[in-house]
TrEMBL record:
Entry keyword set: Cell inner membrane, Cell membrane, Electron transport, Heme, Hydrogen ion transport, Ion transport, Iron, Membrane, Metal-binding, Oxidoreductase, Repeat, Respiratory chain, Transmembrane, Transmembrane helix, Transport
Name used for this protein in its record: Cbb3-type cytochrome c oxidase subunit
A family per Pfam: FixP_N
Role played: C-type cytochrome. Part of the cbb3-type cytochrome c oxidase complex.
The gene coding this protein: ccoP
């Protein structure tokens, strides 16, 4: 670990960098002072293609001048900017600092655009064409990679246009989901349910909750065993937005089809899904516009619906 706490590598990089530039200048100086052995006609005696002779002329002055300017520029750059080991440069420039400045400048430029939407509710913004156009761009650039360009999601990624909202679909809940992110955990429950046959029975009972094709005999047997799942999904299977537990009566399954094999796999192996937090990237105005865009896609619930 001493390599990471000592200043050896910083000194090493500094010596190699400055030494390389100084060596180039010394090479130019020595080459100008060294006298080559030439013939009386100022040639070196080397001949190619019978009559092409090598002359011993000095380097063009413009080339020498440009070479020196390049070396001087290198010294000036290394003085102003980081490049010599741990030396930060006289300007204290960093990539992160420049990025922060550019982001701040960008936010300042677009601030008047977002100011026009200040004070408006998500419901009002969802009816504003300009607000929705901005929300669409924000969604396409940041959310479509997972939820799809049409917001209908895919396997493992929720459809934002349907009626299934694991964490709640009111404007406030959607905005909180975008800002803070979510981590949905379905633990392996096979041991709590019982035998593999019990797991199959519970899977069929889950299918019966939404009226999906199922084995009614197994569903009746699985009703009592479903109590192991009721702590999260509720005794009626309608879920719990506070926990992110899905409503099983809708027949919508994010991680696969509504068939026995898939549900058995979910009960047996569990599943974890992560929605990253975006509050560090977006301003409050942008978060509200994104929430309005998602809510306005058709699947959101009215604001007065309780959590």
């Amino acid at each position: 670990m001493s390599d990471f706490t000592s200043n050896f590598w910083s000194v090493y990089v500094t010596v190699i960098t400055l030494g390389g530039i100084i060596a180039c200048l010394l090479l130019l100086w020595f080459s100008g002072k060294t006298k080559a052995m030439t013939l009386q006609d100022n040639t070196t005696g080397h001949v190619w293609d019978e009559d092409l002779r090598e002359m011993n002329n000095p380097l063009p002055r413009w080339w020498v001048g440009l070479f020196i300017i390049t070396c001087v520029f290198g010294f000036a750059y290394l003085y102003l900017y980081p490049g010599l080991g741990s030396y930060q440069g006289s300007l204290k420039w960093t990539q992160i600092g420049q990025l922060d400045q550019e982001l701040a400048k960008g936010k300042e430029q677009v601030a008047p655009i977002y100011a026009a939407f200040a004070g408006k509710s998500v419901e009002e913004l969802s009816k504003d064409h300009q607000a929705m156009a901005i929300g669409d761009r924000l969604f396409m650039n940041n959310c479509a990679q997972c939820h799809g360009s049409d917001a209908r999601g895919g396997k493992g990624f929720p459809n934002l246009t349907d009626r299934q909202w694991n964490w709640g679909g009111t404007p406030a809940q959607i905005e909180e989901t975008i800002a803070k992110g979510r981590t949905g955990v379905m633990p392996p429950m096979a041991a709590a349910v019982g035998t593999p046959e019990d797991v199959r029975n519970v899977a069929n009972y889950v299918l019966s909750l939404s009226g999906a094709p199922h084995d009614s005999v197994r569903a009746n047997l699985g009703r009592a065993k479903f109590v192991a799942c009721a702590a999260c999904h509720g005794i009626d299977g309608k879920g719990n937005p506070a926990l992110g537990a899905p409503n099983l009566t809708t027949g919508i399954f994010t991680h696969g089809p509504g068939v026995e094999s898939h549900i058995v796999s979910m009960i047996t192996n569990g599943r974890t899904g992560v929605m990253p937090a975006w509050d560090s990237k977006f301003s409050p105005e942008q978060l509200k516009l994104l929430a309005a865009y998602v809510w306005g896609k058709g699947g959101g619930m009215p604001a007065e619906v309780a959590k």
